[in-house]
Amino acid sequence: MNQESLPPHVLIFPLPLQGPVNSTFKLAELLCFSGLDITFLLTENIHNRLISHTNISSRFERFPGFQIKTISDGLPQDHPRKGSKYMELFDSLKSKTKPLFKDMLTSGWLSSDGKRREVSCIIADGVLGFTCDVANEIGIPIFSIRTISPCCLWIFFCLPQLIESGEYPFKGDDLDEPIKSVPGAETFLRRRDLPDFCRTGDLTDSNVQLYKTEGQENSRAYGLILNTFEELDGHLLSQMRNVCPNIYSIGPLHAHLKNKLSEENNSLPPSSNSLFEEDKSCINWLNNQLPNSVIYVSFGSIATMTKEQLMEFWYGLVNSKQRFLWVIRLDSVAGDDWKNKIPVELAEGTKERGYIVGWAPQEEVLAHPSVGGFWTHCGWNSILESVYEGKPMICWPYFMDQQVNSRFVEAAWKLGLDMKDTCDREIVEKMVKDLMVVRKDEFLERANQMSKFAKECLKEGGSSYCNFERLVNDIKSLSDKVRHH
């Protein structure tokens, strides 16, 4: 086939973690619908996990221009790739994966079947700076995608100013001290709301070293793709455009894709890219509950807690007398012995008003009319799903962008309560009652309003709809330039 007549060929390289991979798959599917050829690049480790838990291989069968390829992350197979070992992944990607990536792009291997062009454009996670080095070296246009929240990314962009102004590292240990060097958040940001690694106060910390160059790194790409929408984050996006002038806010991505699937009259449900087995029995349980009566509790795919924390949460939930659906992952509590020592009052309270599963189909749960609130670890995908479905939140952040997100939920967007740094049954009980009973109407009204904005922005003429069209057009015109080089 004549190369000239083939569509642009985009290589997508997400950060190898569940959240980023999940969002980026949704973007890939949207781009496939726009007629682009996609090579989706996964590390071998993530690919193996996806193959065993999801329908990802059959998911893209209707797109002949889609292919998954794998690359080594350079770590031994038994490396945990999370927790304290997480930063080793970045070092390894930079030193071991970078040359493999360059070779993959220059060898012609990705287009050797003749069915697709050579790669004419790259979309890579903005934290993988080496992809930008390679793209610029070989003359392929690159877009950065960031799947964390814009509010956290903006703090990364501001880290150099925080250091310069003397606000970071902290002097003294008052975590409620206000932070003034983050434009757009001067009125409500506190030390405790910065990403958790800022608490070490160590400028040589590998996280600080990695993230303080974010502003420079992300501005090297042609544009920055963000999973948010103007009505939620507009005030911050206008600040961020001072660093990265060309921003494509195209979220909420999960809903953007759902809309596209229904336009295409597609009977396939949106893909589950979950790395865990989902327990659908909880939907039957929800079907028997009253509207807005259940608080859904899930701390995502990575967060872990101690047995003591588990017990405080559990007592708080049971004592609040509210109905709850709680996801407790097999690996989320240190040690297994808690299962054999459940106090009688908790077992009975749970039997009466609660339901516990190992993993839940979250989008379906949040869309359920019985769910009236979401107690979350504040991962960005979870927040957007909650915002879209109009569910107020209680926030118990675990790490990274979650500390920032939880503050924005309460102080900037007024969509819930920030419970960070506390784990006490009385506080849990009070917050659950506040969200589900005392301030229920106030929170639901605000959440419904934001949900309406989230739905409007995806309709024809809406902000995310138009930004996505612009992204596709820009990919096409940049790809044409590469072709004529």
Automatic annotation (TrEMBL):
Catalytic activity: 7-deoxyloganetate + UDP-alpha-D-glucose = 7-deoxyloganate + UDP + H(+)
Keyword Glycosyltransferase: yes
GO molecular function, one term: 7-deoxyloganetic acid glucosyltransferase activity
Entry keywords, A to Z: Glycosyltransferase, Transferase
EC annotation from Swiss-Prot or TrEMBL: 2.4.1.323
Transferase in keyword set: yes
InterPro entries linked to this entry: UDP_glucos_trans
Highest taxon of source: Eukaryota
Family statement: Belongs to the UDP-glycosyltransferase family.
Entry protein name: 7-deoxyloganetic acid glucosyltransferase
Provenance organism: Nicotiana attenuata
Encoding gene, per UniProt annotation: UGT85A2_0
